[in-house]
Design goal:
This protein has five helices and 25 strands. The longest helix has 12 residues. A hairpin with a 2-residue loop joins strand 11 and strand 12. It folds into two domains: 156 residues, no CATH class; 181 residues, no CATH class. By secondary structure, the protein is mainly beta. It has an eight-stranded mixed beta sheet with strand order 10-9-16-6-5-21-24-23, with no helix packed on it. Strands 1, 2, 3, 17, 20, 22 and 25 form a seven-stranded mixed beta sheet that branches. Strands 4, 7, 8, 11, 12 and 15 form a six-stranded antiparallel beta sheet that branches. The protein is flat, with a radius of gyration of 23 Å.
């Protein structure tokens, strides 16, 4: 696989990141089709940016008979854990990614199925019986937990459904119950693929963008730390990218590149339940948003097609790897751009 990065030269500085300065990105992908050897994916046009993910598909029924199928969009699992900080765009909503879908240009109304688990056991009936919403990060769920009868709260704590969390002031006296369950959500709908015809399906959502308040793999004027080797592999950081980071650190009196990280994970390897399992024509566009940001991701024959956009295409494409994107955003005024 060819490695590609665009680098932006910035005279900036930052301190090394701490664990509690980070939010975790939630890997999200595209549509999954119930198994069909009749329906082929003729094309997929995928655009990823920190603000929005859009995917345009063209499916084609290769047979003389209509095909009815289930189409699903799995949202990433989220787990209630006061020690973790997942990046959830709309954390007070069941549709926490703001998912929308159209079929042949008309808005669709998919059904949302949600399951909640604690220790691998479905606890949906328990939560419903106490009028506790499923979203573990919603304020309404935490408010409902505060009203639990003592016997129920003790039972749930023993079963690993909730835990006691020290109050915001750090005192034992102000402890509260907090969710410890896992939420699994899937949007789905039934779709008919007419005989020998195309069906255009488009969807969009807000990505879960993880972040760190500084550069986690460079400090004390050198690349180091447990993240460095992992990042080189995951994001294909090459010499151009690393030279830009080093220059930013060299130009700073404290020797730290003044960036903060953004991370996006797109799951491309799921699906494949269509005829041949490959995508006839695949196009990926990555938009970094800020012209002065540094960006690194793995890809074949990536071309810069705009001030902030990069593109790669493939024919008869079979996805074997997911897409991981690293952005280093300037936390101050940056200099000009270099490739």
């Amino acid at each position: 696989m060819l490695r590609y990065v665009l680098t932006t030269m910035l005279a900036l500085s930052a301190a090394p990141a701490l664990a509690n300065d980070s939010t975790a990105e939630l890997g999200t992908g595209g549509l999954i089709l119930s198994r069909s050897d009749a329906v082929a994916m003729q094309s997929e046009d995928l655009t990823i940016s920190p603000e929005k993910v859009t995917v345009d598909y063209v499916f084609h029924n290769n047979t003389d008979k209509d095909v009815d199928a289930i189409v699903a969009f799995p949202l990433p699992d989220i787990e209630g854990d006061p020690e973790e900080m997942p990046a959830i765009p709309e954390n007070q909503s069941d549709n926490f990614l703001g998912f929308e879908v159209t079929i042949d240009g008309a808005p669709a109304k998919p059904q949302l199925e949600q399951k909640v688990y604690a220790l691998g056991i479905d606890i949906g009936a328990d939560l419903k019986a106490q009028n506790v919403p499923f979203n573990p990060f919603g304020d309404t769920a935490k408010a409902a937990l505060a009203k639990l009868p003592k016997a129920v709260a003790e039972d749930w704590e023993n079963r690993g459904i909730i835990i006691e969390d020290t109050g915001s002031d750090g005192t034992e006296a102000n402890k509260v119950y907090t969710p410890w369950w896992q939420l699994r959500s899937t949007y789905w709908w039934r779709s008919t693929f007419p005989a020998n015809k195309d069906v255009h399906v488009s969807h969009r959502y807000k990505p879960s963008v993880g972040g760190t308040s500084s550069v986690s793999f460079f400090y004390d004027r050198k690349f180091q730390g447990s993240q460095y080797a992992a990042y080189k592999t995951r994001y294909c950081m090459d010499n151009n990218f690393e030279n830009a980071v080093s220059k930013a650190a060299k130009d700073d009196p404290d020797g730290y590149p003044k960036f903060y990280e953004k991370r996006i994970a797109y799951i491309l390897t799921t699906g494949g339940n269509w005829a041949n399992g490959s995508i006839g024509k695949f196009k990926l566009t990555v938009d970094k948003g800020n012209p002065k940001a540094l960006i690194s991701f793995c890809g074949d024959n990536v071309k810069k097609v705009g001030p902030t956009t990069f593109e790669t295409t493939a024919q008869d494409f079979y996805p074997e790897h997911n897409i991981d994107i690293l952005l280093l955003e300037p936390s101050g005024d940056g200099a000009g751009e270099a490739n």
